[in-house]
Amino acid sequence: xxxxxxxxxxxxxxxxxxxxxxxxxxxxxxxxxxxxxxxxxxxxxxxxxxxxxxxxxxxxxxxxxxxxxxxxxxxxxxxxxxxxxxxxxxxxxxxxxxxxxxxxxxxxxxxxxxxxxxxxxxxxxxxxxxxxxxxxxxxxxxxxxxxxxxxxxxxxxxxxxxxxxxxxxxxxxxxxxxxxxxxxxxxxxxxxxxxxxxxxxxxxxxxxxxxxxxxxxxxxxxxxxxxxxxxxxxxxxxxxxxxxxxxxxxxxxxxxxxxxxxxxxxxxxxxxxxxxxxxxxxxxxxxxxxxxxxxxxxxxxxxxxxxxxxxxxxxxxxxxxxxxxxxxxxxxxxxxxxxxxxxxxxxxxxxxxxxxxxxxxxxxxxxxxxxxxxxxxxxx
Length: 380
What we know:
The protein has ten helices and 17 strands. It is of the alpha/beta class.
């Protein structure tokens, strides 16, 4: 009080006092330290709701923050992980940020990309874009009691915890996401060829008849239509679709089968299924394979061929301008709606360069200390 009185006696006009979070020593907590990964950029100087802009903590998407206090329901106190400055700053709480983002976000309905009626669109395109009503997946992947499901598409924070893979631990699931024809299959094939003992891919299920040259469990796992539909009702598929009156799907057990062999499982799925895989069991690392600019696509892929699936006898056709535009549009939609779920973005401008970047990422992922999701918000 003496200092305040002295300031008042020596000053003229109005005096403004600003209260900021105090500096205090960290005290051991029974619950341990809480870390979160930011899924959005934040600048307190641009936040009209914050009680004191100077007390705010700015951060970028992907930053790891340590929560120092959650006593206030609207404003948490946090600091950047590893920051030597012991003073915390104010950040919007998860509930507050979700609420105002939901109120601010306009109702925009993104129409699905139209499929070509030509045969060359192939099985893979039909399978990837013929997902059933996603509400059927609400109870999938050990997230039945998750209260965060309905707000998972509002990017705020994700609780994480320090993680380093131990020798006896299974590898993290590697999820590759990208638009059709961006080169996911080619990258997976190169990774498999580089080390067949280290990398593995799932064997999909199908209800179509087995062909003479095929073996059950190699190209596909062949099951009856009745059993497939039963498994759908029991939420055993990550994603599934119908093509030429036959079902095709990727089961969660097929992922577990690859991981059980002590291999890195390479899985490519539609981005809206990623949040169902974000559990402590899989600890997925999500990589978005992004196309280059449309000018580069025209230049580098003018002589390339689109190879259809084996179910279409592997026919090939050149890329068209429509293919390039569809790829760019699809990538923009994916990044806009699900970019907060991606751990890394790789531009596939050159297959060899993209492969080397993927390989370097995997090598680093297996040796570095990383953060994984905590068990409090398994569905985020």
